[in-house]
Amino acid sequence: MLFDIENETLPKDELGALQLKKLSSQLERVYHNVPFYKQKFDEAGIKPEDIHTLDDISRLPFTEKQDLRDNYPYGLFAVPEEHIVRLHASSGTTGKATVVGYTQRDVNGWARLMARSLMAAGARRSDIVHNAYGYGLFTGGLGMHYGTEQLGATIVPISGGGTRRQVMIMKDFGCTVLCSTPSYGLQLYEALQTANISREDLRLRIGIFGAEPWSPSMRRDLENKLGVKAINIYGLSEIMGPGVAIECQTAQDGLHIWEDHFLIEIINPETGEVLPEGEQGELVITTLQKEAQPLIRYRTRDITSINAIPCRCGRTHRRITRIAGRSDDMMIIRGVNVFPSQIENILLECQGTTPHYQLILTREGALDQLEIRIEVGSELFSDKVKQLQQLEMNVKKNIKEFLGVTAKVKLVEPFSIERGEGKTKRICDLRTT
Ligand SMILES: [Zn+2]
Predict the structure, then answer these.
(1) Residue 315 CA to ligand 1 centre (angstroms)
(2) How many whole angstroms from 227 Cα to the centroid of ligand 1?
(3) Distance, CA 250 to ligand 1 centroid (Å)?
(4) pLDDT of residue 94
(5) What tens digit of pLDDT does each residue of 189-240 get?
(6) What is the model's pLDDT at position 91?
(7) For the chain, N or C: smaller number of CB within 10 Å?
(8) Rounded distance between C-alpha atoms, residue 148 and residue 102, angstroms
(9) d(CA 68, ligand 1 centre) in Å
(10) pTM (predicted TM-score)
(11) Three-class DSSP category at 414
(12) How far apart are CA 110 and CA 99, in angstroms?
C-alpha cells in the first residue's frame, strides 16, 4: 500500500521535470530572499536562470553545516519571522547548535512525507506506534509523532529514557511498531529480559530504526531479539528531520529517498566532484519544496551510494544504500579508511560478543593504534579464560582479514560500556595531530 500513490510512482521523466520546475523556483526564492545565497551565487558568477537542467546544479556552491552555524540562529531563513511556526535545533555535539525553522506548510509537508515513510515501512492505520525518539529540539520525536497521526495510526509519545517503564508500556499498550535508535532498541531488549518479558508477550511487528548508522548484522540481531521486521529510516534536521528516506517493507533493501522533495547527488568528499550513479561517496541534498529554510547542495557528510534499479514495491524514487558512515567520522588508521559500522559488522558475526563496543585511537610514535573494547555476554564472562582468549583472537583475526588493520582487542565485563539513550559515542580519538 502506498500513502501518496500518484507522487510515489511518478515515471522517471515526469519526476525529473517536476524536480527541475521546483528547483528553478527554489533557486529564485533563495537568491532574492536569503542574502547568504545571493552573495554565494554572485561570488560564483551564477544566476538562478543559468540553471537549465538538473545536472547544471553542480555549478552551484555547496552549503555546509558551518554555514548554518555562521548564520546562527535565523540567518538562512527565506521567509519573514512571522511565517515561522516551529523551530528545531540539532544536538550541537561538535559545536554550536544549528537551527531549523518551519512554516505551517513545511510542517504539513513533513507530516505527509513521514506518513508516506511509515506506510512504506509497513505501518497501517490500525498500528500502535511506540515512539521512543526524543521529543524536543531534536526532530526525531515530533517528526514521527505528526507522521503517525497523519497516517491515522495511534501514537504513544513515550520519548526517550525510563527504559524499565518503556517495556511495561510497550507490553500493556500492545504496541505494534517501535521507533528508536538501533542502539536503544537493543537496550530495550536488555530491559525486556530483566523484566522477564519475552518477545511473544509483545505485539511488536515492525521496528523503525534510525538517527545513527547501523549494519546488516545489527538488523538481524534486532529482528531476532525483538521479533520485528527492522526498517532503516534516514533524515537529518537541517533538511527536514526523519522521513527524508526509508526502506520499503517489500524489498527492505536500500532507502527510497523522496525525490519529489529532495534532489540528490553523490560527491567525492575530498574533491567535491560529482560521482557517477552507483559510486559511493558523500550524499548532497537540495531541498525542492521547503519554504522557511531551503538549502542548496547541502553536504550531509553521510556516506552512501545511489541504487537506480527499479524496486519491486512500485515506488519510482531511487534508493540510497544504508549509510556506511560519516565522512567526518571516517577513521584513517595507518592510511586505511575505516568506518565504525564495519567494525560493528565484524563483531556481530563473532559469537559471544555483544553489540556494545568502543573504539579507542591512540598514536604510539608515528603509528596509529586501534583498541577495540567489546562487552562480552554474561554467559561467557566468568572464569572461562580459554574461551575468552579464543574470542579475542577471533575478533583480531577478522578485523585484520576484512579491514586490513591490526587492532588490540580488549574484552570487558557486561554493562561496563556506557549506554547512550540517543546517538552512541563509539569513537574515542586520543591522537594528537
Ligand atoms: Zn521499494
Answers:
(1) 6
(2) 22
(3) 6
(4) 55
(5) 999 999 999 999 999 999 999 987 788 888 999 999 999 999 999 999 999 9
(6) 64
(7) C
(8) 19
(9) 33
(10) 0.84
(11) coil
(12) 17
